[in-house]
Each structure stands twice: as C-alpha cells, then as structure tokens.
Design a protein that fits this description.
It contains six helices and two strands; from the N terminus they run H-H-H-H-H-H-E-E. The protein is mainly α. The protein has a two-stranded antiparallel ribbon. Helix 3 runs antiparallel to helix 4, helix 4 runs antiparallel to helix 5 and helix 5 runs antiparallel to helix 6. The C terminus is likely disordered.
Amino acid sequence: SLLQEVKMFIDEVRARRGGEVVGINQFPAEASGPASVMNSDYQPSTSRHLHPSHTEWFNHNEDTYFRAQSARGRAKKIRDETTDLVNNRRILSAGTQRQATEKLGERIIDTSDLYTRGELELINLREEDQLLRESKITLEYSLAQVVRPLKVNNECLRLREKREGIEEVNDIVQRNLKREKESIEKYLEKFETMQIKVENQLVENSKSERILEQDLFNKKAALDIDTLCVQLDKCSANIESYEGIERMNPEGSVPETWQQKAENNINFAAEKRSLSAALRQEVDSLINVAAAELLQLWTNTNRSFHTTITEHKEVKSKLIENLNQTSMDIRSKDCLIQRLNLNLSESEVNMMMAQTRMERRNHRPGLEACDDPAHEMLLKEVDELTQTQLMLKNKMEEVEEAKSELTRSKTNLEEVTRLNIGATKVDEKECMVLRENFPFKLRCDTTTGGTVNHVNNPSLG
C-alpha cells in the first residue's frame, strides 16, 4: 500500500541522513490527526520531543514533498509503461492476428487449390467410370453376339454329319468350319477374361472415387471452418471464450503429410482413370479385332461353301451324263444280246438242217453212201455252225459281262449321284440358308436405347 511505501521511503532517508529526519512513528498518536487535538485540552509540553523544531518541521514537509513527487514519478512511469505496454501489445496482437488471418488465407488458398484439383479429378473419374460402364455393356453385348455365329457354326457341323459315304470328306468347308469354331471359342474366352478385368477396374474406380469424395468432403468442411475464421473479428457476435483451447493440438496431420496425402489421393484417382481409359481402348480393340477376324473367317467359310457347292454341281452334271451314257450302253448291250440270241437261234436252226441232211443221207443204200462233195460240204457246214455257235456264246458271255459291269457302274453312279445330291442339299439348302448374313452386331449404342451397328458380309453382297 501507499502507507507502506512511504514508511519504506522514510526509513531510506533516515538511513542516509543519520537519523536526523523524524519519522512518522515518532509523533504521538494523539497528534496524528485533528480529531485528537480538538477532543483534548491543550497542555504545554515540557518535553523537547513533543514540540518539533522548525528544522524538523521543514524537513518533514520537504520529505513529504519529496515522497509525493517520487510517488507521482513512479505513477507517471507506471502510467507511461502501461501505455507503452498496452500500445505495444495491441500492435503485437494486431500484427499476430493479421498474420494468423494471412496464414488462414494461405491455408484456404492451398486447400482450395487441392479441392479444385480433386474436384476436377473426381469429375473426370466419374466420367471415365461411366464410359467404362458403357464399355462393359458393349462388351457384354458383344459377348452375347459372339455366341450367335457359334450356334450357326455348330448347326452347320451337325447338318454336315448327315453326309454319307464318299461325301464325308474332310474338305475345305469342314476345315474352315472347324477353324471358325476355334476362333469363336478363343474370342469367347478373351471376352470373358476381359469382362472380369473390367469388373475389377470398376471396383478400383469406385474405391478411388470414395476416397476422393471423402477427402473433398473433409476439405470442404475445413474450407468452411477456415473461411468462417477469416471472417471473424472483435465485433463478431459469435466469438466466445474457450479456456484451455490453446493446449489442444491438432493431431490429424502436419502440412507435409497433409499435402502429400492429398496429392496421393489425386494421383491415385488419376492412375485409376488412366488404367480405366487404357482398358476401354483394350475392350474396343478386342471387339473390333474379333468382329473383323470372325467376319473374315465367316466370309472364307461361305466362299468355300460356294466353291464346294459349285464343284458338287459340276460333279453331279458329269455323273448324270455318265449315268445316261451308261444307261444307253446297257440298252445297246441288251440289243446286242438280242441280236446274238437271234443269230444263235438261227445258227441252231441251220445246224439242225445240216444235221438232218446228214442223217437223211446216212440212209443211202450200198454204194450210194458215198463220201461225196456234198457230204464234205455238209461236214464243213456243221463244223462252221459249231464254231459260229461257240463264238456267239463266247461273245454272249462277253456282252453279258460288259452289261453286268455297266449295270454295276450305273448302280454306283446312281449311288454317288444320290450322295452328291444329298451333300449339295445340306450345303446349299440347309447350311447356306443359315449363313446368308453374318449374325454379329458389332456393338450396342447405349445412348440410343440399343441401336446397333451391323457388320455386313461383303461376300454375300
């Protein structure tokens, strides 16, 4: 208190002046105030100490002045120091607050930059994800389309099993059908493998999308909070005192890890988007290559069908021609046999007449049974007729054998012609009816409700 400070000051002065200054406590308590003087009768003092001298009085007043000036000096110093302290701390506080606001603004800029980049990447990732989903639909559609030519191929192979005999040849059509089937089954396997890859990539895209969405959600919340903090001032109505809040340290991250994590999220999404785009290109390439190759194989098989059908028709014409000629030869052999039979019958009649003549001449009596020229001629006639009959019979056997051979040839020609006609019917009337158009629609247009682009078969016009 002020009284204590005064006492301390007097003690210091007494010590400096060797005890010449009279302290406050040396005066009697009765003389310390006007009330005691007024309430007591005046008694002349006989003691020196009860009546201070002029010097003591003067020193006392000087001391009082000095103490008052000292107190005012200290008060002025304290006031000046307080003013300087208040001004300095106000300036320091304002500067620190301004710096804090600037740091908040810088943080908002950094966060906004990452938020903008993340938001743009999220938009691009969603667009890419939608494109990949459309590509998946196209792939599934193409997978279903590949099954259609496989069904036709299997049906053609089944129909060609109805071929018989020599027509069961492993011809170019059969080889092309098998090659076509192997290629279709190969692309079916590739499409199924690609479908699994697309589904896995969609899962990765969704995972990256969720990570970005959560990161953007957190950054949006942080931006809202930091923006509100920047807008706060001393006059804001919603500022409050939170005692001890300065002892709570954020433990989520530090600027380096915060920046790196955000960059990692964006880069992760960009990487998945790049993989997705590459996979879409791979899907499109697979569909286009499959369509082109299958169409080429389909066209080659159809051309081989046309070639085989043409060959069969040419063979059929030759077979029918040979069959007709064989039938004519058989008929000519029948005529020849009839002629031979007729000649043989005629020779038999001649033989009977010659033999009858000789028998009759055997009945000539005596010397009349002469071996005359007539008898010699009859012998010659019988011998000639015998040879003629033998020759006619031999020729008859040859003709009959030739006829039998022609008959067997005709039967064989008829059978081969039947098989040829059956095989031609299978290829032309049954297989080619199924293969008039290539049953493969290249892709499904997901934006027009299923409109498709057709793959035309140039070999069929």
